[in-house]
Design goal:
The model has no long low-confidence stretch (mean pLDDT 90). It is globular, with a radius of gyration of 20 Å. It has a domain at 69-271 and 318-384: Cytochrome P450 (Cytochrome p450, Orthogonal Bundle). The chain has 16 helices and 14 strands. The strands form five sheets. The chain has a five-stranded mixed β-sheet with strand order 1-2-10-7-3, with helices on one face. A three-stranded antiparallel β-sheet has the order 4-14-11. It has helices at 8-12, 15-24, 41-48, 80-89, 94-98, 101-113, 123-128, 130-140, 147-158, 165-191, 197-203, 213-244, 246-254, 259-270, 301-304, 339-356, and strands spanning 27-30, 35-38, 54-55, 120-122, 205-206, 209-210, 276-280, 284-286, 289-291, 296-299, 361-362, 368-369, 378-380, 382-384.
Length: 389
């Protein structure tokens, strides 16, 4: 059996392949592309908690893809990773993130207002795509007129296929454009600080020293790419889940306090980030084989979240499941900093959608999926619903 993360059929529905990996090749080796993969929940969780043996500084994507030209915390190891993470994490815990709820709700209702009377819409284009970019734009200080361009750059960076070099070239050009634009923002905030994250990072110190421009640019780059595309995918797959399991949607409609649990199940069931790469720093023995030092290993979060060794009926979407141990945000020292923000945005979006257009259904034949090796979500998501004034 071959597992190819770039295969379009795998990207549309990876779960049958994941099941075969877990049952037959829990430590998978791909000779052609030169990587290994762990697919079982306990294996993935174990590796995530061994950062000394599975390092991130070798990159979290497969070889051949364009990356951020500057270091960022997702591709750092301790001790620098821990110091920078501690600095920026203060702004992404539940309490400061909760202060964004009114703003997120206002943006969400404005976006829904724009299509609620139409009876049909591409949900990605109209809601799940623009909302996260608006929120991150507010955080960083991206001017409203530039946010659509940033979303296009983010899409180009994420949607790379090493079998199609033109997509890698486009990703490299988009990454350079993002960094150039943020460099302009950094220069502007040095002379005239504002109430945004870039200004706060310029003022911050670690061990008495200010962050370098490269570290600030790397963090902004990460926030735009990882903080928008993943939430877009989560909202998209969440809308698919509620349409595919109407009894579960009815449960949330009857009992709105189930929505936080439903969001956790969306994360487990849809896993917007399907996998992240690590690089071994020493030989690793697992399942009767040895991974040499210096090799890439994919930690398949999406597969782990569908492991029937951990979850009962994992293919079923159940809003009362409350899967506390899912790994949709990773685990260990690199647990996603933006988890609270993604949860907030998704909860608010579905609270408003279920209030305004609760009967949406999906034309599955018209869905297109993004083409990327480690993230998954609909690129277009046409829905129909009863028009609402």
């Amino acid at each position: 059996m071959r597992f190819d993360p770039y295969d379009p059929s795998t990207q549309r529905d990876p779960y049958p392949v994941y099941r075969a990996l877990r049952d037959e090749q829990p430590l998978y080796k791909d000779e052609e592309r030169g990587f290994w993969a762990l697919s079982r929940f306990e294996d993935v969780l174990w590796a995530a908690h061994e950062p000394g043996r599975f390092c991130s500084s070798g990159g979290v994507a497969l070889e051949g893809q364009a990356r951020s030209p500057f270091p960022n915390i997702i591709t750092m190891d301790d001790p620098r990773h821990g110091a920078l993470r501690k600095l920026v994490a203060r702004g992404f815990t539940n309490k400061p993130v909760a202060a964004f709820e009114d703003r997120v709700r206002l943006l969400t209702t404005e976006l829904i207002d724009s299509f609620a009377e139409d009876g049909s819409v591409d949900l990605v284009k109209a809601l799940s795509g623009p909302l996260p970019m608006m929120v991150v734009g507010d955080l960083i200080g991206v001017a409203p007129e530039n946010r659509e361009q940033f979303r296009k750059w983010s899409d180009t960076i994420v949607h790379q296929d090493v079998d199609h070099p033109q997509t890698v070239d486009a990703g490299r050009a988009a990454a350079a454009a993002v960094v150039e634009h943020f460099a302009e923002i950094v220069r502007a905030r040095r002379s005239r600080p504002k109430d945004d994250l870039v200004s706060a990072l310029l003022e911050a110190t670690v061990d008495g020293e200010h962050l370098t421009d490269e570290e600030i640019l790397g963090f902004c780059f990460l926030l735009v790419v990882a903080g928008t595309e993943t939430t877009t995918n989560l909202i998209g797959t969440g809308a698919l889940a509620l349409a595919a399991f109407p009894d579960e949607r009815a449960e949330v409609l009857r009992q709105s306090d189930l929505l936080p649990s439903a969001v956790e199940e969306m994360l487990r069931w849809g896993s917007p980030v399907q996998g992240s790469a690590r690089t071994t720093t020493e030989p690793i023995e697992r399942h009767g084989a040895t991974v040499p030092a210096g090799d890439k290993v994919l930690l398949l979060w999406g597969s782990a979240n569908h492991d029937d060794r951990q979850f009962t009926d994992p293919e079923c979407f159940q809003v009362r499941r409350a899967p506390e141990r899912h790994v949709a945000f990773g685990h260990g020292v690199h647990f996603c900093l933006g988890a609270a923000l993604a949860r907030l945005e998704t909860r608010v979006v579905f609270a408003e959608l279920l209030t305004r257009i609760p009967d949406w259904h999906v034309d599955e034949s018209a869905i297109t999926w993004i083409h990327a090796s480690t993230v998954r979500g609909p690129a277009t998501l046409p829905i129909e619903f009863t028009p609402q004034a």
